[in-house]
């Protein structure tokens, strides 16, 4: 109850205030629907929203998995040499600085309409936090431990898998937490331009002036992001709680 009540009370208060404010016409219903209207929209369009939720989940998860795999691999490659890092790290930053909405039409041209564009969009948005945090974690490995591994004749591969990556795990998981939310955002943007799913539902509902349905789809997208974030937290708890201070509190 100590964990559930603190976030639950503000949420219930916000729902109650929103319901009263819209019903009393303090806020126009065509701008913000009542929470009860959003709930009814979710019930009435449950089949459409559920199918869209599954499609968005697939695109976001595949893009997130791809960014995790390639992001860690790229960070390992960058950490192997200062010259490689200076040569290629700016291009990793480039992926973060270019707005996804600006290159989404290009993704449609390259991959066509459908799931490939959604996955590519989720991947492009979410890969940089994985690279940046993994690289920081690897480069922050205790120099004394590196010297000890070198003293005992450990190979670079052994040092990487038995020292550098385990030591970088807290930073890697931090990057995955950020990337998980960005992957959902990227998937929604990709669906706006060239896919189905919750992004398409939001776009169609907007043209129909169905604000309640827009809020329902956005709520489901937020739930998906929270579920991914919670999954990374669960993994973090199981992998770090025995040895790292961040999970021992």
Keywords:
249 residues; mainly alpha; MetI-like fold; 10 helices; 0% strand
Structural commentary:
The protein has 249 residues and is an all-alpha fold. It has a single domain, classed as MetI-like fold, CATH 1.10.3720.10. Helices cover 82% and strands 0% of the residues. It has helices at residues 5-23, 35-44, 46-79, 82-97, 100-111, 115-139, 143-151, 156-194, 198-207, 211-240. Helix 3 runs antiparallel to helix 8, helix 3 packs across helix 9 and helix 9 runs antiparallel to helix 10. The protein starts with a helix and ends in a 9-residue tail after the last helix. The mean pLDDT is 89.
Portion in strands: under 5%
Radius of gyration: 22 Å
- Through-space gap between termini: 18 Å
Helicity range: over 70%
Low-confidence spans: pLDDT under 50, at least 5 residues? none
Give a summary of the structure in a few sentences.
This protein is mainly α and 249 residues long. The protein has a single domain (53-241), classed as MetI-like fold, CATH 1.10.3720.10.
Element layout with pairings:
Elements: H1 5-23, H2 35-44, H3 46-79, H4 82-97, H5 100-111, H6 115-139, H7 143-151, H8 156-194, H9 198-207, H10 211-240
